[in-house]
C-alpha cells in the first residue's frame, strides 16, 4: 500500500512543466513581434498614402493655376506662346510657379527661371505635417502645334520618403479659349 501511494503522488500532473511554459512564451513572443511589424507597416503605408494624396492636390492646383491664367488674363495662351515658340524668350524652359499677391486670394503664374520648382514645407498649402514637397509647373509645345492655340501643361510634385524620392506628374492639354 505504501508503494502505491508514493507512485500516485509522483505520477500526478497538476501544473505546467517548464518546457510548456517556455514554448508558450516563445509562441507569444512570435505573435507579438508579428503584430508590431504589421502595425508599423500599416502606419508607414498610411503616411505614404497621405503624402501621395497631398502631392496630387498640389499638382492639380498647378494645372488649375495655368487654366486660371489662360481664362482670366485676357491673353489666352499667347501669354506662354512667345517663350515656348522661340525657345529663347524670357522663360525658354517654360517653367512657372504660383504667386499669390498680398491682399489677393487668387494665385497667378510667374516665370520660374531657375526651373527648380517651389517648395512647400509642413503645414503650408494644406500639406502633411513634417513633409516637404516641391512643385514644378511646365508649359510646353504640344506635338509641334502652334502654342498660341494648344499647349501641354505638366505639373510635377516630388517629395522624399524613407524608401527614396517619390513623384506625381499630372499633364493636361490646354487649348485657346475663344
Number of helix segments?
Answer: 3
Strand content: 25-35%
User: From N to C, what is the helix and strand string?
Assistant: HHHEEEEEE
Total domain units:
1
Distance between the termini: 114 Å
- Shape, principal axes of CA atoms: rod-shaped
List segments where confidence is low: pLDDT < 50 over at least 5 consecutive residues. Answer: none
Overall pLDDT confidence: 77
Give the total of beta strands.
6
Alpha-carbon Rg, integer: 31 Å
Structural class: alpha+beta
What summary fits the major beta sheet? 6 strands, antiparallel
| Helical proportion, percent range | 40-55%
Brief summary of the model shown:
The chain has 178 residues and is α+β, with helices and mostly antiparallel strands. It is built from three helices and six strands. It has helices spanning 2-11, 18-72, 78-86, and strands at 95-99, 108-111, 118-120, 133-141, 150-161, 164-175.
Amino acid at each position: 500500500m505504501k508503494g502505491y501511494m508514493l507512485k500516485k503522488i509522483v505520477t500526478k500532473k497538476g501544473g505546467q512543466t517548464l518546457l510548456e511554459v517556455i514554448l508558450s512564451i516563445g509562441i507569444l513572443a512570435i505573435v507579438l513581434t508579428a503584430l508590431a511589424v504589421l502595425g508599423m507597416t500599416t502606419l508607414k503605408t498610411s503616411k505614404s498614402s497621405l503624402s501621395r494624396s497631398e502631392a496630387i492636390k498640389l499638382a492639380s492646383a498647378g494645372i488649375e493655376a495655368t487654366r486660371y491664367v489662360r481664362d482670366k488674363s485676357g491673353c489666352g495662351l499667347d501669354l506662354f506662346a512667345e517663350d515656348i515658340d522661340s525657345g529663347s524668350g524670357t522663360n525658354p524652359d517654360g517653367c512657372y510657379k504660383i504667386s499669390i499677391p498680398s491682399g489677393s486670394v487668387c494665385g497667378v503664374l510667374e516665370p520660374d527661371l531657375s526651373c527648380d520648382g517651389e517648395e512647400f514645407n509642413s503645414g503650408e498649402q494644406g500639406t502633411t505635417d513634417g513633409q516637404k514637397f516641391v512643385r514644378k509647373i511646365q508649359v510646353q509645345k504640344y506635338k509641334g502645334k502652334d502654342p498660341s492655340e494648344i499647349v501641354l501643361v505638366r505639373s510635377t510634385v516630388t517629395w522624399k520618403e524613407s524608401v527614396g524620392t517619390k513623384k506625381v506628374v499630372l499633364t493636361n492639354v490646354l487649348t485657346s479659349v475663344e
